[in-house]
Amino acid sequence: MADEMNIYYDEEGDxxxxxxxxxxxxxxxxxxxxxxxxxxxxxxxxxxxxxxSFKKRTKNLENLKVALPFKLELA
Length: 75
What we know:
By secondary structure, the chain is mainly β. About 5% of the residues lie in helices and about 45% in strands. It has one helix spanning about 55, and strands at about 5-10, 15-20, 25-30, 35-40, 45-50. The protein is globular and about 35 Å long.
C-alpha cells in the first residue's frame, strides 16, 4: 500500500501538519521560525512538515503561499 498524504490543521492552536504516511517512528527537526521538518528515525527521509502560526502567515487560504526552508518532495 502506498503512503497516504495526511493534512491536519488545528484552528485553535493555529498548527498545520502535512505528512506522507505514518510518522510513529519520526522526530521533529526545528528549522526555526516555527517550522519543523518531520524525519523518519530509521531511514532519515523527510516524511512531512509542521508549521506553527500557520493562519497568521497567510492572508487567506484561497491563495496559499508559504515559504519553506527546504524543498518538499512527496512521492
